[in-house]
Amino acid sequence: MKISILGTGNMGAGLAGALAAAGHEVALGARDPAKAAALATKIGAGAVGGGIAAAAALSDVIVLALPFGAMAETLSEAGDLTGKVLIDISNPISADFRDLVIGHTTSAAEEVQKQAPQARVVKAFNTVFAQVLPQEARTGAAVQVFVASDDAEAKATVAALATALGFAPVDAGPLTNSRFLEPVGAMNIHFGYFLGRGPVVAPAWVQV
């Protein structure tokens, strides 16, 4: 599958490497095309890198590996997103990583859907640290990825990607449930960085 990743930070780079290793065709996009091209060269496996619009045009599945504050500008640069699956992995957190800047009555994912109404937005991977994206980092535990969307086909596509990367996808319902998933992501950040667990923890829903 061809997958474009907009963003070259820790999560963007980590997902790009993991997806390329799983045999997917990866295109990276950034405001600085040279940065995306350099990361693509580092990843290898046929990955390519360039500008936001160029990368977005190459794939029907696009990972928005961006801070929430950069989302609107990036979406405006991305071009026609009609019918494309947009995977929002963001948590709308404050600069000090301690608080959510929106929530309860909306979510980052819902705001993305408003900005790209013709796209099919899926919330996923927001509760996973970059450090646990490589499969070798998860040999001792199955890590869940919660997947929320109003589009059943898009949700199934993202669940299949999560499975291909060795994660356990969990159907988290409609996109409005991102209002609950994003606080879970924020709590995971607190466990990882403020409560001493390190960025190698992840939440799980367990059937008892």
Describe this structure in words.
This protein is α/β, with parallel strands linked by helices. The chain contains seven helices and eight strands. It has one domain: 3-Layer(aba) Sandwich (Rossmann fold), CATH 3.40.50. The protein has an eight-stranded mixed sheet, with helices on both faces. It has helices at 10-21, 33-43, 52-58, 71-77, 108-115, 152-164, 178-194, and strands at 2-6, 25-29, 48-50, 61-64, 85-88, 120-123, 144-149, 168-171. Strand 1 (2-6), helix 1 and strand 2 form a beta-alpha-beta unit.
Give a brief outline of the structure.
With 208 residues, the protein is α/β, with parallel strands linked by helices. The chain is 36% helix and 17% strand.
